[in-house]
Amino acid sequence: MSATNTMATFRYKTFGYAAQSVGARLTPFSFERRALRPNDVAMEILYCGVCHSDLHWARNDWGWSAYPVVPGHEIIGRVIEVGSEVTRFKADDHVAVGCMVDSCQHCDQCRKGEEQLCREGNTLTYGSPDRITQEMTQGGYSKHVVVRQEFVLRVPEGLDLARAAPLLCAGITTYSPLRTWGVGPGSRVGVIGLGGLGHMAVKLASGLGAHVTVMSRTPDKEADALALGADRLLVSTDPDAMAQAANSFDLIIDTVPTKHDINPYMPLLDVDGTLVIVGQLGNLSEPSTVPLMLGRRRVAGSPIGGIAQTQELLDFCARQNILPECETIRMDQINEAFERMERADVRYRFVIDMASLTA
Ligand code: NAP
Ligand code: ZN
């Protein structure tokens, strides 16, 4: 992919893997990226993480998917070209892109660096209309991408490129609530579901000095949970163990990807504790207000995180040497990876090595 940005009609030819219709297997797909605007950065994608949201989107679990869709929003790349007004990046820089590629940039939330809460709605990395041309954005299961510089992150020196990708979604989505709720030394944090988001929640909460408990459906991941930095694993299907843990958490991060019952978890919060949902988008099984009212407990939600905080996270992880646990796959293994993710058979994030993607 190379050209000058002076040709208004020029578009980058690229290729990737797309779902062409609801639930279809991902197959090779050739498409185009926009010509560089003055504030755009073009990059070759080196690695892309596989998020459960990619699977939700490919299957239209949320009801608003458009097709064809090239999923992928945990992108690590190398700059190949920059627009004439780009000041922050130059060719060959190692860069990253997460779940958003644009926002209005002028509302109160954008000005605070909370672009994920943009009043006009942010532009997602895939499946959103571009703010200028209205063409659908396409994600990181591809060879190249073009993104405005405000939404491009710098990969700090020393962060392993092959393992950093999951920080761009699983990392920031769990780091953001840890920061919102002021987690630090002495905080008591629970994490429901030890998958992509869950394992990052454990590493990050532990890195911030918290006492961390994993809540998993079986004891199978206990050794892993401890190795990741958790202090213990609580089997969420064991009523006695759950009862013993009553009133023992300040914050619980719930990463379960499907409709579920939060009632068993609510009594585990201490007074004023919060259960923050970052997984299921949609209905829950009927929640009871009893534990909410009697313990002055709260239920909250949290979407990804802002660009400045994502950079803070990347820098924090480089300093603390916190890296996701990755299983590297080839692009043509993506359908098998989706199937394994659906069975919760991933320890703990698939990352596609884009060198395996050839035209
Ligand atoms: P994942 O890797 O598949 O992990 C989900 C974990 O949840 C599994 O490992 C499993 O852990 C547990 N789980 C799975 N099915 C369950 C069920 N039916 N009941 C109870 N627990 C179950 O998924 P992920 O990539 O971490 O994503 C998790 C969710 O977060 C997805 O819905 C995704 O769309 C969402 N998400 C939200 C945001 C946001 O901005 N808020 C950002 C990214 C992703 P155990 O085996 O340990 O029980
Ligand atoms: Zn994601």
Could you name the ranges where pLDDT drops below 50 across 5 or more consecutive residues? none
Which small molecules are bound?
A: NADP nicotinamide-adenine-dinucleotide phosphate, zinc ion
Structural class: alpha/beta
What distance lies between the first and last C-alpha atoms, to the nearest angstrom?
Answer: 12 Å
Describe this structure in words.
The chain contains 10 helices and 17 strands. It has 359 residues and is α/β, with parallel strands linked by helices. α4 packs across α5. It is globular. The model has no long low-confidence stretch (mean pLDDT 96).
Descriptive tags:
10 helices; 22% helix; binds NADP nicotinamide-adenine-dinucleotide phosphate; binds zinc ion
Outline of this structure?
The protein is an alpha/beta fold and 359 residues long. The protein contains 10 helices and 17 strands. Strands 3, 4, 5, 8, 9, 16 and 17 form a 7-stranded mixed beta sheet that branches.
Describe how the helices and strands are arranged:
Blueprint: E1 12-18, E2 27-33, E3 40-50, H1 52-58, E4 75-82, E5 94-97, E6 100-102, H2 108-111, E7 123-124, E8 144-148, E9 153-154, H3 161-164, H4 170-180, E10 188-192, H5 196-207, E11 211-216, H6 222-228, E12 232-235, H7 239-244, E13 249-254, E14 269-277, H8 290-294, E15 298-301, H9 307-320, E16 326-329, H10 334-342, E17 349-353
Parallel strand pairs: 10-11, 10-13, 11-12, 13-14, 14-15, 16-17
Antiparallel strand pairs: 1-2, 3-4, 3-8, 3-17, 4-5, 5-9, 6-7
The protein binds NADP nicotinamide-adenine-dinucleotide phosphate and zinc ion.
